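ping. complex inputs:
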Amino acid sequence: MGKGRTEAFSDGVFSIAITLLILEIKVPPVAGQSNRELAWALFSLWPSFFAFVGSFATILVLWINHHGLFTLAEHATPQFLFANGFLLLFIIFLPFPTALLARHLTEPGGNTAAVVYCGTYVLTNISYHLLLTAATSTQSICKDVTPRLTRRIRRAYWFGTLIYISATITAWFHAVAGVLICSLLWILWTRLSYCDKAEQK
Amino acid sequence: MGKGRTEAFSDGVFSIAITLLILEIKVPPVAGQSNRELAWALFSLWPSFFAFVGSFATILVLWINHHGLFTLAEHATPQFLFANGFLLLFIIFLPFPTALLARHLTEPGGNTAAVVYCGTYVLTNISYHLLLTAATSTQSICKDVTPRLTRRIRRAYWFGTLIYISATITAWFHAVAGVLICSLLWILWTRLSYCDKAEQK
Amino acid sequence: MGKGRTEAFSDGVFSIAITLLILEIKVPPVAGQSNRELAWALFSLWPSFFAFVGSFATILVLWINHHGLFTLAEHATPQFLFANGFLLLFIIFLPFPTALLARHLTEPGGNTAAVVYCGTYVLTNISYHLLLTAATSTQSICKDVTPRLTRRIRRAYWFGTLIYISATITAWFHAVAGVLICSLLWILWTRLSYCDKAEQK
Amino acid sequence: MGKGRTEAFSDGVFSIAITLLILEIKVPPVAGQSNRELAWALFSLWPSFFAFVGSFATILVLWINHHGLFTLAEHATPQFLFANGFLLLFIIFLPFPTALLARHLTEPGGNTAAVVYCGTYVLTNISYHLLLTAATSTQSICKDVTPRLTRRIRRAYWFGTLIYISATITAWFHAVAGVLICSLLWILWTRLSYCDKAEQK
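pong. complex structure:
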């Protein structure tokens, strides 16, 4: 199993998971609504749009980071393939907490939905930790990857772990606040570079 | 992140979004209809077929234009990747307004559905403006792309903006008319060339 | 727009359309059924399985033929791209008549469902005719494609047209008979070669 | 039809089928549940999560084995393409028994659901047998594939056949036990090597 094939398969899974997000936004059922009533019905779908945009941005950035991680590894060791499979499990799973959040955020059970949503990000973060470990183990790492680079990436991942756990705890007391933290953390991941050249500057 | 990978990922998203359109056409539920009644039930699904064909043609042509835009850029700058992500958000979103239109076009709330449908095209058009700007910024533009070519493309995009906004306003007064304008504008985009050679003739 | 990209995009659409077929087979809803009752409920889903397998085999063979057609063309002319888009429209559409058939074949409206199913194949067949014409027009045809080869393919297509129209008419009088003809015609398409070498023997 | 194209198409089908699994986990409908009630509702979805993870792991490992099988064949003979199509039919089908199991495992009809689930694995196993036969037939096999290697793979497949049939019978008496056997057998397939070098050690 080459690294290239695994990457292509993962790309397929990422692009499908990100596109399936839209299936969870349900069109208001037909009940003779007037233009005004339909506009209002659409407006009250805001938790769906909110969850959709948050998960879209996150999956897109996770995909970019996934490529970054793949550049660190020279060979796909069995350990690396296993960690990648574990990561894909959560990528495929993401549309479920997104839909759960969309429907229950403004309901009495909103905190539970938000905790599950944020908790999924914690698990995704853990799977990135595992993939980083597998990619930088002595058998698979590229020669030109410096320890300084992997330390920097690891530090950013730990920072993510901390924030995602905090968001999960926050979500228990204030659902929207917790979700907002999770949804906005993708901005951090866009700043993360997997390239040594950026570091040498 | 190379340009090639981003293009392949975008292709995946386009092909999935265009195929998901069919999921929104719902089979008439079984209720002991006779052959005649079922034929009539299928016939009354015409807004679904209409929206399906319109969105199909549009996504297909947007995809062709997406490739054209990618030929203008030599490198994928972060700004370019961000604009592309913004565009993908609307491509993935398109099945929702399509389904909304399919179900509500012939209902009292038809104008709202049509305005949302046309409005999505306005936003898609804006994201193409952004991608063009990113593709032709000084860092990423190909050497053999002339200012004359980018001006011509920009002019076509502005023409599109104008028509899509007009369609959105029209949809408020006459739903079908507004949607027809949006659905037919893809014919304009098939005429648009991203190649300098065509211009030199 | 190169031929390769169009082929890759079409491959994506074919593989998604063929996989979406399964979404139309609905799990019997939970209503406290015993093992025997659930087994019976599954058994009575036979029209779904029948339609699923028929459409699966057809899309798979259409995909193989699609590749054959692409080998005939050297360049992707606009006419060729347009014909290919028209073909993709019906490939994407196929899950709908499949689901219609699955639910209504054993109902009073079975003939209507079967006519729509067979009629879709007639339209698909027409789009293959158009793609063949576009692929073998003077601007796009490969040098080593002999007129004898294109005549042989055309003849097979006309044979298909005849059978699909007959099946559509048959479906009006006997739903299952018409569908059976359509579902089994893929065997013909597996026999069709797009290669001159096979002919020279 | 080259081997490469068939492999790419199959990869697409595998990645879509594995991602569609999530669509079968349904979000608990909104009914004013409190946080505690929603948490409980999510917890009682355990058969869905169980079936999801089991099918995910299985499809992922089947995909890795699919690549292994493709390395054995040098040419894609018609027989090989046919066997591959037969295999894809079951890969696409897998989300259905997964959903059936998810909803009916804890219901009175759980045994029927479990038997169908395990039975699908028996059929998938048979299609792997057929693909192995096609890949190692005299017309298509690679020169450097030793009879010893194919015998070893065949033996592992027969072992799988035996276990899957046993699981199907077990499922008739104890649903969860049968499913557990099926869901865990993917661990066996991760151990299977399609490479001669591993054998020479």
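The CA atoms of residues 70 and 123 of chain A lie 20 Å apart.
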